[in-house]
Amino acid sequence: MTEPRALSLHVPTPPARPGGRPDFSHVGIPRAGEARRPPVDVGAHEIHDLAYSVIRVLNRDGEAVGPWAPELDGEALKQGLRAMMRTRAFDARMMLAQRAGKTSFYMQCLGEEAIACAFQTALRPGDMNFPTYRQPGLLIAQDHPLVEMMDEIFSNARDPLRGRQMPVLYSVKKAGFFSVSGNLGTQYVQAVGWAMASAISGDTKVAAGWIGEGSTAESDFHAALVFASVFRPPVVLNVVNNQYAISSFQGVAGGENATFAARAHGYGIPSLRVDGNDYLAVHAAACWAVERARRNLGSTLIEFVTYRAGPHSSSDDPSRYRPKQESEAWPLGDPIERLKRHLVVLGAWSEERHAQAQAEIEEEVLAAQREAERHGTLQNGPHAPAASMFEDVFQEMPWHLREQRAQMEENR
Amino acid sequence: MTEPRALSLHVPTPPARPGGRPDFSHVGIPRAGEARRPPVDVGAHEIHDLAYSVIRVLNRDGEAVGPWAPELDGEALKQGLRAMMRTRAFDARMMLAQRAGKTSFYMQCLGEEAIACAFQTALRPGDMNFPTYRQPGLLIAQDHPLVEMMDEIFSNARDPLRGRQMPVLYSVKKAGFFSVSGNLGTQYVQAVGWAMASAISGDTKVAAGWIGEGSTAESDFHAALVFASVFRPPVVLNVVNNQYAISSFQGVAGGENATFAARAHGYGIPSLRVDGNDYLAVHAAACWAVERARRNLGSTLIEFVTYRAGPHSSSDDPSRYRPKQESEAWPLGDPIERLKRHLVVLGAWSEERHAQAQAEIEEEVLAAQREAERHGTLQNGPHAPAASMFEDVFQEMPWHLREQRAQMEENR
Amino acid sequence: MPRMTMVEAIRSALDGAMERDARVVVFGEDVGYFGGVFRVTDGLQKKYGASRCFDTPISETGIVGVAIGMAAYGLRPVAEIQFADYMYPGYDQLVSEAARLRYRSAGDFTAPMVVRMPCGGGIFGGQTHSQSPEALFTHVCGLKTVIPSNPHDAKGLLLAAIEDEDPVIFLEPKRIYNGPFNGHHDRPSVPWAQHPRSETPEGHYTVPLGHAAVARAGEAVTVLAYGTMVHVAEAAAEETGVDAEILDLRTLVPLDIAAIEASVRKTGRCVVLHEATRTSGFGAELAAQVQERLFYHLEAPVLRVTGWDTPYPHAHEWDYFPGPARVGRALRDVMEAA
Amino acid sequence: MPRMTMVEAIRSALDGAMERDARVVVFGEDVGYFGGVFRVTDGLQKKYGASRCFDTPISETGIVGVAIGMAAYGLRPVAEIQFADYMYPGYDQLVSEAARLRYRSAGDFTAPMVVRMPCGGGIFGGQTHSQSPEALFTHVCGLKTVIPSNPHDAKGLLLAAIEDEDPVIFLEPKRIYNGPFNGHHDRPSVPWAQHPRSETPEGHYTVPLGHAAVARAGEAVTVLAYGTMVHVAEAAAEETGVDAEILDLRTLVPLDIAAIEASVRKTGRCVVLHEATRTSGFGAELAAQVQERLFYHLEAPVLRVTGWDTPYPHAHEWDYFPGPARVGRALRDVMEAA
Ligand SMILES: Cc1ncc(C[n+]2csc(CCOP(=O)(O)OP(=O)(O)O)c2C)c(N)n1
Ligand SMILES: Cc1ncc(C[n+]2csc(CCOP(=O)(O)OP(=O)(O)O)c2C)c(N)n1
Ligand SMILES: [Mg+2]
Ligand SMILES: [Mg+2]
């Protein structure tokens, strides 16, 4: 062998930085309707191509086309639109509330509303989501009371989590919404365990795991896929690829070399790659995967391709690391605009009705905020009693926590 | 949707248990010479088929056939044969020594000798292996002194590791053999880090990671593949699929659904699947992957398909969980027999020379054992001084360890 | 009453729990068909089927992670980590998830589960088959930590742990799996059958968590010990003639502070034992508590006898292990003090 | 001499180390182009290039694992874990690998590396952005654990850590990144510029590991503190008028036992502080050591003031944080004690 040359490290760099020109040419986007729709009992190996395509239903003209176009009536579509609009209005309000000092922190899902809102409609009562912080739509699509969510965000006296968690880390068992962890990825393998339990128990319930594309690098992602591969439990494993993990573009998570849907191939798990800004495509893919799970055919991984249109959180300023206009250049458009257009094309909706709905929703959200503020805010309280912080460490409070509670009270 | 039926858990079961009939029909084995040999700068996506095939060179008649047949002269082949024979003889002796109480524990690599012995010949001085406990062949192929290895196994006064490690967890930096960890998988991602360091430094050195198929389930495997995918460092990631992880067949690690070579696909890392009992195939694949690494083309994953012919360790009794005759039914044969046959076919070897070599090697190993025993055994000592156990926790011994050393000495 | 080894007693607990409660599932590396590398789960797969007792992939992250999901669903998972030394890859799931779930969801979700793991040295397992990581659990609020010293307690504590509504770490000192061990490694090994605490009811009973036992009553000095070290303490007391009161703590969190206080109040002296490394070991917590609460009762400093602050060395196992000589020395030191 | 914040001082240490030594590489989540969520690594990628300062995938296992490989190769990796609360997935690599490598290979391989991580509460980060896991490192032989309380020390200790031949855990109390903080959260925040220890040389210097500093000299009681709690101790001493001698430990392992002994011999009383949960916290080790070594000098039990044994609650942060009121109370208690 000839004398080798000096090696060098490949460090991924995004196509554009602040001041640069947004470039999404690497996101190959097929036309709506193009991707084939296999039967749910297809073998994982037979649909590898779908991990390199994008399942899309809504075309540029707002029509639902191709084999994935679901049978949703106008009512269901309007409900979907409303869920997304409410989610967005809720987020906008809470971002303002955070800036006004009413809470410490906020995370919105701007631009990603279709994913959670449409996915939820594929589930049944009793099924369980294991969400990240970016799926409030799972709750809002079920008409879970906004006030209760705000109570959590404000850590006020009615906060169901008693002021213990940071904003948006909800837990709503009765809505099939697992306690959100501040630690990335951990809940993904728990979703697999929950689904295994359903199978062990001869139950019919299905679990859904959620993770961001950045967090697929975490260990729990691999553990989840290994256990899902081996035990074939009824779980849908969702990856939300919103192109960013805080400041890091998806290349830092490995996106330069393969899609996140393709991660499933090495485990023999079927996977789909879906337009995450297309309410109909999300709904159709979710139904397909949930049906597989329900029919004991095992797990499915779905990559939802979307774009985080807002900052990572209220603490973040994306203009430091990506072009300001990047969001507008995102080729998959805005999920609300796209569904609205579809409804208009169907003749079931109009600009006027939309504007009216928007006004009603803003009013609803504002009213909810007023009510939640009456229950208190982080800044001004009231909160759950301070002594309650010693509860729920264990089911029964042991002596040392009782002792510490007394010490705390003495020093207030 | 109709009312769903009760779910059930899939629990993998091996084709045969003790008393049953060995069955390897699931290991699809193509004919030698069949797999294509792509150029080393091929894209990962272009060789997915190779993860579902088996690269084989030696056919049933002992001939080297097909595009992977390497250019190794008779001398090199005889060295390979000798390395494998010495490895096997060494293992056999040490199993006996363990049973005779000269040490606490032993792990052999019976049936897997070709993998480490042939792989090592693809490396250059300065490259670094991150082995598991089943690659003594990496050392033996370099003629690393057997006595030194036995000194470690016996934890005697000359043990380079000063009695600190269990048997076979060698560390030989000068031979490019990283300290073996008792914790599975951990070294896999370290190999990636070492290779990243080589690239960062503009060096020309290559790393090789090693892991068992069972341990691919560990978190470090995923971390290694993610970092290898993102930073494209010069590392060869070897998976030794010997069908078992202690008592668990490879199905428990996910082998029912995809090959271990296929794990690489989701990361966009090229992978090969290789007959691990074929010295020539291992050598050829290793050279291919090392060349990729050396030419800054990034990492390669190789699955070596083999069979753990012995017990997991000296503490294990495989007749409790697999058919006794399973080893004989293994379709890829014995690596030593196959290379011997090839040499005989080439006219470079004979039964007589083989028997003579065998006798010489046994003599060599026995002599080494005698010498090592003169340096001591675990049972009877001598060992490194007990006080040395406080050394090397840190480069400099802090006060608390000096204090503890004194307390230890007081109570001896 | 039948006499059992620790292994048999733990198996009996699992068997009984699986029999009584269909929610109990048992899994881990090699625990299914093979019955575990220490044979603890032998026969359970055959009896209860593969979906209630099965082998897992080699991923401690996965084992603990799926256990949490199962517990949240409503099952009672009992997971085995093959050696306590291998729990670290699953540590995040234990600390950030199992321990926190009830708290962060204000009781909406809980994780009633048991993670069993063989711990401790004395089998020439070197640094990766000998560790005693209990302090890494006791520092984590939301976890209970249990460690039995004999078959009777092992069964009763394990049943209590399985029935507990919170996650419990169940440490099994592997050196005493098949017989008690007092640290005299050079003497013939003793079978459990000769030990009174090997008498183990076949049926269901619990040893409640949070309660210490008096392993030996005495007046001169209180010894706080658990697991294998209880037996070492007994040997040291006998050999030195020091009239030690030996408390077998059994549960480290929640700690039986009342029993500790009562004993030290009586004796005025205290020695704390463990096999784990010394710095920040659980002995530090015990010493800190005893002097905080009983300072004016103490006639001598609380002494610790522990493993050294080094990895467990293969060949020097017996110079590492805190055997009866070192414990005896501490007993005499604390008696002679002031 | 220039005045720096903690963030600037740490950045200055990294900058200087990268400038002097081409082996130093810096990486972690968001540390490259963006410069880290706390801006600590801002500008380093631009100055030293992307192969010496880069973003990593979100895998703490991977971050620590590759750091070990790099260190074994011969580089000097300085890895950032975005919050100490997220180090658990990398804990196995730290405990089983970084801490053990020199020992198990008898010096054949070593892992000279630094793992930086912001720790502590006080920023309404809730239970997953507030933890102080130092005791989980101090229990692990083979790791050094460092935690600075001011910019001057932060830079000097970090440079010493990078030059150290062993793996060092470098904890950065995030509440004092941009100004000292004495626990009076309701008072206006103070900038570092007003604090004498913000004077930080531009150039190279080290603060050697293993040495405590006297943050306040006094005669009545010794306070053992580190990180943010040094400032709380100062406030409590001032507010109570108790003439406390406050030791800023700076390095927890190896501990400066000589400084502790000298002070407690003088004062005869001792209070130990930390923000971490109480049970099995590092305070237990300190209390155990002090009473073991200085029992006959002590006039009162060693008291601990710590975080409670609960997760760090979002809304009740200030009832959780061991502020000046609780510390002052302990100072008075220990002074009044018999
Ligand atoms: C274990 C762990 N490591 C790091 C973090 C800090 N962190 C919070 S969000 C985030 C980025 C996550 O990106 P992604 O998974 O893509 O989800 P997204 O925010 O885009 O929805 C990081 C690094 C964390 N919360 N947990
Ligand atoms: C982290 C960790 N978990 C568990 C073990 C126990 N253990 C030792 S070897 C082994 C099986 C490994 O199987 P595989 O990776 O296939 O390698 P092989 O023994 O077949 O070479 C197990 C589970 C360990 N050493 N480390
Ligand atoms: Mg993302
Ligand atoms: Mg194997």
Overview of this protein structure:
- The complex is a heterotetramer, with two copies of chain A (412 residues) and two copies of chain C (338 residues).
- Chain A is an alpha/beta fold and 412 residues long.
- In chain A, 35% of the residues lie in helices and 8% in strands.
- The longest helix of chain A is centred in the first third of the chain and has 26 residues, at 74-99.
- By secondary structure, chain C is α/β, with parallel strands linked by helices.
- In chain C, 35% of the residues lie in helices and 17% in strands.
- Chain C has helices at 6-20, 44-48, 60-73, 91-98, 101-104, 134-138, 151-163, 228-240, 257-267, 282-294, 317-320, 324-336; strands at residues 24-28, 53-55, 76-80, 114-119, 144-146, 168-173, 213-216, 221-225, 244-248, 251-253, 270-277, 303-307.
- In chain C, the strands form two sheets. A seven-stranded mixed sheet of chain C has the order 2-1-3-4-6-5-10, with helices on both faces. Chain C has a five-stranded mixed sheet with strand order 7-9-8-11-12, sandwiched between helices.
- In chain C, β8 (221-225), α8 (228-240) and β9 (244-248) form a beta-alpha-beta unit.
- The longest helix of chain C has 15 residues, at 6-20.
- Chain C is globular, with a radius of gyration of 19 Å.
- The structure holds thiamine diphosphate (2 copies) and magnesium ion (MG) (2 copies).
Which spans of chain C have pLDDT < 50 for at least 5 consecutive residues? Answer: none
Can you count the helices of chain A?
A: 11
Q: What is the terminal separation of chain C in angstroms?
A: 47 Å
The end-to-end distance of chain A, rounded to whole angstroms, is 75 Å
Structural class estimated from helices and strands of chain A: alpha/beta
Helical run tally of chain C = 12
Strand order of the largest sheet of chain A: 1-2-3-7-6
Work out the oligomeric state of the chains in this entry.
heterotetramer
Q: Strand tally of chain A, please?
A: 7
The hetero molecules present are: thiamine diphosphate, magnesium ion
What is the percentage of strand-forming residues of chain C?
15-25%
- List the helices and strands of chain A in order: HHEHHHEHEEEEHEHHHH
Major sheet: arrangement of strands of chain C: 2-1-3-4-6-5-10
List low-pLDDT spans of chain A: none
